[in-house]
């Protein structure tokens, strides 16, 4: 859900007569730390300053540490 709202907000069409300026950097909350948002920014040349949300990252399994 956050990804769709993010894209809608950044692709907002401005009224005619004014040039469109994309941001060079985006600072956001850890809630926006998703692969879709990071890829969206990367494709458009926007640098992401988003802290890593540990809940969205892959967690190590116990058996990975035991080398079973």
What's a concise summary of this model?
With 68 residues, this protein is α+β, with helices and mostly antiparallel strands. The chain has three helices and two strands; from the N terminus they run αβαβα.
What does this structure look like?
This is Putative IS1648 transposase. It comes from Methanosarcina siciliae T4/M. Helices cover 34% and strands 9% of the residues. With 68 residues, the chain is of the alpha+beta class. It has a two-stranded parallel sheet. Helix 2 (35-43) links the parallel strand 1 and strand 2. The termini are far apart. The mean pLDDT is 77.
Query: What value does the Rg take, in angstroms?
Result: 17 Å
Mean pLDDT over the full residue set: 77
Biggest sheet architecture: 2 strands, parallel
How many strand elements? 2
> What is the helix tally?
3
Helical percentage: 25-40%
Straight-line distance between termini? 38 Å
Which structural class fits the helix and strand makeup? alpha+beta
Strand order of the largest sheet: 1-2
Contiguous low-pLDDT stretches (5 residues minimum) are none
Shape: elongated
What's the SSE pattern?
A: HEHEH
Oligomer: single chain
Strand content: 5-15%
Q: Which short descriptors sum up this protein?
A:
single chain, 68 residues, alpha+beta, two-stranded parallel sheet, 3 helices, Putative IS1648 transposase
């Amino acid at each position: 859900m956050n990804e769709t709202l993010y894209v809608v907000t950044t692709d907002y069409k401005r009224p005619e007569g004014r040039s469109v300026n994309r941001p060079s950097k985006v600072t956001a909350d850890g809630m926006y730390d998703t692969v879709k948002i990071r890829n969206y920014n990367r494709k458009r040349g926007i640098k992401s300053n988003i802290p890593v949300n540990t809940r969205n990252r892959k967690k190590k399994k116990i058996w990975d540490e035991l080398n079973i």
